[in-house]
Design brief:
This protein is an alpha/beta fold and about 725 residues long. It contains 20 helices and 30 strands. It has six domains: about 30 residues; about 60 residues, Membrane-bound Lytic Murein Transglycosylase D, Chain A (Roll), CATH 3.10.350.10; about 45 residues, Membrane-bound Lytic Murein Transglycosylase D, Chain A; about 55 residues, Membrane-bound Lytic Murein Transglycosylase D, Chain A, CATH 3.10.350; about 240 residues, 3-Layer(aba) Sandwich (Rossmann fold); about 180 residues, no CATH class. Helices cover about 30% and strands about 20% of the residues.
Length: about 725
C-alpha cells in the first residue's frame, strides 16, 4: 500500500513539473519576438501575403505565433516545408485580420538582447559536437557566464553559431610577447615587418585577424620591434600613384582615317542550339528558326545561305534547353537587319557550339572558316579558349558574349569580352562613390568571405585611393581668383570653378626610400570597413552619423540576409540618412519589400540595364514582338546591342577595327560599351561600362544617365 501511494505521489509531482515546464516554454514563446517579422503585405495572384525570411534558430511554432496563424496554415501555403524549415528559406504567410499588425505597434514589442560587452572577448564559431561544458573548460569561464553574454544559446547550441566569450582577466601572454594596439590604416604586412615576423606567424598568434584588421584591435606581438627596410605610409596616410594624365582626345591611328573595307563581311555566330537533341526528318537538312529574317541553319551546324524560304524549326516542348540561347540569336538577327538597312552587307554563319569542345574543333576544321571577319561566341569557356587560339593565328577578332571572368583575356589580344567582370564593376562603383559622395560617411560592409578577400581588398584600396584623391583636390582649392596667368574657368572633377587648383607641394615629396613621383596623402577618415558577421547591426549602428549621408556599400549576398538587413536599416531611416549600394545578385531577390529599396535609396551595379522609356528599347521590343510573337528577354536585347556594336565597327573600319577602339568608345552614355585592356597590349579587351541604377518613385532609374532639359520658347 505504501509503495502504491509513493508511486502515485511521484506521478503527481512529475505531472506538475511537466506542466510548469510547458507553461514556461509557452511564456517564453509569447514574450519573445521574431525580430525580422515582415510588416508590409505583397500581392501574389490576387492574394496578399507576408514574405518571411527564415533565420537561424527560428521554428515553425515561433513563426506561427509571431504572425498569429496556425502552423497548418503556413504548411498549406508552403507545402515544401512539411519536412522541416531551412534557415535560407523564404515562406509566405497569408494576410488575415489575425495576422495583420500595425508596423508602428510591432516596433514597440520587446525583444531579448545580449547585454553590452565590457572587457576583452573572443568570438567562437560553434563546431559540430561542441558543448557548453567543453567551451567553458576551453576558455576557463563558467557556463553561466557564456549564457549571460549569449542568451540565444540557452535553448540549444547550433553549428555555425557565433558566441562572444569573455577572456579571464589573468590570462597570461606567451613569454617574450606583448599586446599591441592596431592604429588606423595599418596592415598585416606592415605590422609583421615592424616586429620582424612573417604574416603567417602574426596570423598564428592572432587567428582572429584572418578576416581583417580593425583599428583599436589588440594583437599579440614580440616585445622588440625591428627596423624597416622599406617605408610604410605613416599612420593615417596612404601612398598614391602619380596623378593620371588629364583626359584628352585619343590619338587617332592613321589606319582609321583611311580604313580597308570590303563589300561583304563574313560573320560567324557560335551559339548553343543543342541540335543533336532535336529530331529532324532525315530528308531535310536545313531549317528556318522562327523568323522570316533568320538564316537557314544546317543540322550539321553551319549556315549555307543568309535568307530564303525553308521548312520551320521542329516543335519542341516548353523549357527545352534548345530555347536557352534562342532569344540572343533573335537579337543578333534584328541587329543584322538594322545594319543592312544602312547599306552594309554581311553573311551570317551560325554554328551549333555548346560546352563540348569537340564541336568547336569540328567548326574550326571546316574549309573557309579561317576567312571569317568576326566570330561571336562560343558562350562557354573551354570551346572559347580553343576558338580564340585558332582565331588569333588567323587574325580574326572574337567576341565573348556572356562570360565575365577577366583572366580569359590574358594573352589573347584578339578577344573582346562584352560583359565586365565583377572586379571591373567594383572599380566603376568606387569611382562613382568617390565622385558623388567624397565627404560622406562611407562604410564598406562585408563578411570577410575567404573566396572574395582579394576582390574586396582591391575594391577597398581603390575606393580609398579615389576618395583621397578627390578630397585632396577639394581641399587644395585656393580662394583667390586667377586672371591673366591661367584661364578663369577651371574644371575640378565634374565641377566648373573660377578658382585655381593649388596642390600642396609638401604632399608631392617622396618619403625616404620611396619611389619618386609617388605621393603620400592623408588616409580618408570617412571610409571605414565593417565585417558584418563579427559585429552585426548592433556594431554597425555606432558607425553611422546623423550629420552625413551614410553610404553603405554592402558586398554580401543571400536573400534571407538581405531581407533582415534592409528591414533593420529601414527602421533607422528617420534617424539617419542612408544610401545602400548592393551587388548584382540582389536584383534577383523577389521577396525584398519595395519600400526598403525606395526609402533606403538602394543602388545596384550591373553589366546590363534596360530603360524601357528609351525610344530605342521601345522600338526593339515592338519589332521583336512583331517578328517572334513573344516578349524579348534581357538576352535578346544584349544580343542585339552586342551584334550591332561590332557589325557597325566592321562596317566603318573594316577587319582592323581594333586599331580604332578609342573612336568606337566615344559613342556617349547611350552606348553600353567602353573597352579597355586590363592586361596591356598583349591581352584582350574588356567592356568597362557598368550601369548603376536605383529605385526612385517606384521606377528603376539609371543614376548616370544625363539629364535631358527641354527648353521651349513662346
Amino acid at each position: 500500500m505504501i509503495v502504491h501511494m509513493n508511486r502515485i505521489v511521484f506521478l503527481m509531482i512529475l505531472m506538475v513539473c511537466s506542466s510548469l515546464l510547458m507553461l514556461a516554454q509557452e511564456t517564453t514563446e509569447q514574450t519573445s519576438t521574431i525580430v525580422n517579422r515582415s510588416t508590409i503585405p505583397q500581392t501574389v495572384d490576387g492574394e496578399q501575403y507576408y514574405f518571411h525570411a527564415v533565420l537561424r534558430g527560428q521554428t515553425l511554432y515561433s513563426i506561427a505565433r509571431a504572425y498569429g496563424v496556425d502552423e497548418e496554415v503556413i504548411i498549406e501555403t508552403n507545402p515544401d516545408i512539411r519536412d522541416g524549415l531551412r534557415y535560407d528559406q523564404i515562406i509566405r504567410i497569408p494576410v488575415t485580420e489575425q495576422t495583420y499588425v500595425d508596423p508602428e505597434k510591432l516596433r514597440e514589442l520587446p525583444e531579448e538582447a545580449a547585454p553590452a560587452l565590457d572587457g576583452d572577448f573572443v568570438e567562437h564559431e560553434v563546431k559540430r559536437h561542441e558543448t557548453l561544458f567543453g567551451l567553458s573548460r576551453k576558455y576557463g569561464v563558467s557556463q553561466e557566464t557564456i549564457l549571460f553574454y549569449n542568451p540565444q544559446a540557452r535553448d540549444v547550441l547550433r553549428v555555425g553559431q557565433i558566441l562572444r566569450i569573455p577572456l579571464p582577466e589573468d590570462e597570461a601572454l606567451p613569454r617574450g610577447y606583448r599586446l599591441y594596439t592596431v592604429a588606423p590604416g595599418e596592415t598585416r604586412f606592415g605590422i609583421s615587418r615592424r616586429f620582424g615576423i612573417s604574416e603567417d606567424e602574426l596570423l598564428r598568434l592572432n587567428p582572429e585577424i584572418e578576416d581583417g584588421l580593425r583599428a583599436g584591435q589588440e594583437l599579440i606581438v614580440p616585445k622588440e620591434e625591428t627596423a624597416q627596410d622599406e617605408p610604410e605610409p605613416p599612420g593615417g596616410y596612404i601612398f598614391l600613384p602619380p596623378e593620371p594624365p588629364v583626359a584628352r582626345a585619343p590619338d587617332i591611328d592613321p589606319y582609321c582615317l583611311n580604313p580597308v573595307t570590303k563589300d561583304t563581311y563574313q560573320v560567324a555566330l557560335l551559339i548553343p542550339l543543342y541540335l543533336e537533341e532535336v529530331e529532324f526528318p532525315e530528308d531535310i537538312k536545313q531549317y528556318i528558326i522562327d523568323a522570316p529574317v533568320a538564316p537557314r541553319v544546317d543540322t550539321t551546324g553551319a549556315v549555307v545561305s543568309p535568307l530564303g524560304p525553308g521548312p520551320t524549326f521542329p516543335r519542341l516542348p516548353p523549357g527545352h534547353k534548345a530555347f536557352s540561347f534562342l532569344p540572343y540569336y533573335h537579337g543578333v538577327l534584328i541587329a543584322l537587319d538594322s545594319i543592312r538597312q544602312q547599306g552594309a552587307n554581311f553573311k551570317l554563319h551560325v554554328f551549333d557550339v555548346c560546352q563540348d569542345i569537340s564541336k568547336a574543333r569540328r567548326v574550326t576544321g571546316q574549309p573557309g572558316f579561317s576567312g571569317m571577319d568576326l566570330i561571336i561566341g562560343p558562350f562557354h569557356r573551354q570551346p572559347l579558349n580553343h576558338v580564340t587560339t585558332y582565331a588569333r593565328q588567323h587574325g580574326i577578332p572574337v567576341v565573348s558574349p556572356l562570360l565575365s571572368e577577366r583572366d580569359q583575356l590574358n594573352g589573347y589580344d584578339n578577344l573582346f569580352k562584352a560583359t565586365p567582370s565583377l572586379e571591373e564593376m567594383l572599380q566603376q562603383v568606387a569611382g562613382h562613390v568617390a565622385q558623388r559622395y567624397p565627404g560622406q560617411n562611407i562604410l564598406v560592409v562585408h563578411n570577410g568571405q575567404p573566396g572574395a578577400a582579394h576582390i574586396i581588398g582591391e575594391f577597398r584600396d581603390s575606393l580609398l585611393t579615389r576618395v583621397a584623391r578627390v578630397n585632396h583636390h577639394y581641399d587644395s582649392l585656393h580662394l583667390s581668383r586667377v586672371n591673366g596667368y591661367y584661364f578663369d574657368g577651371t574644371f575640378v572633377g565634374n565641377r566648373r570653378t573660377n578658382v585655381l587648383v593649388m596642390p600642396d607641394g609638401s604632399t608631392r615629396q617622396p618619403a625616404t626610400g620611396q619611389i619618386s613621383g609617388v605621393r603620400v596623402l592623408p588616409r580618408p577618415n570617412n571610409v571605414r570597413e565593417v565585417i558584418y558577421r563579427n559585429v552585426g547591426m548592433q556594431g554597425l549602428i555606432p558607425m553611422l552619423r546623423q550629420d552625413k549621408n551614410n553610404v553603405l556599400i554592402t558586398l554580401i549576398g543571400g536573400e534571407p540576409f538581405l531581407s533582415d538587413y534592409l528591414r533593420q536599416l529601414h527602421e533607422l531611416r528617420h534617424d539617419y540618412h542612408i544610401t545602400v549600394f548592393g551587388i548584382p545578385q540582389w536584383q534577383d531577390y523577389a521577396s525584398i519589400e519595395i519600400n526598403y529599396l525606395q526609402n533606403l535609396r538602394v543602388h545596384y551595379f550591373t553589366p546590363d540595364f534596360y530603360d524601357y522609356t528609351d525610344p530605342h528599347i521601345r522600338d526593339f521590343v515592338l519589332r521583336y514582338r512583331e517578328l517572334f510573337q513573344t516578349e524579348p528577354d534581357h538576352d535578346a536585347i544584349k544580343g542585339a546591342r552586342t551584334a550591332y556594336f561590332f557589325l557597325q565597327a566592321l562596317h566603318e573600319f573594316g577587319a582592323g577595327f581594333q586599331q580604332c577602339m578609342p573612336l568606337l568608345n566615344r559613342q556617349g552614355h547611350h552606348s553600353p560599351f567602353d573597352f579597355g585592356r586590363p592586361f596591356g597590349r598583349t591581352g584582350g579587351w574588356e567592356n568597362r561600362h557598368t550601369f548603376i541604377y536605383r529605385i526612385q518613385n517606384y521606377q528603376t532609374v539609371d543614376v548616370n544617365k544625363p539629364v535631358e532639359i527641354t527648353i521651349t520658347t513662346p
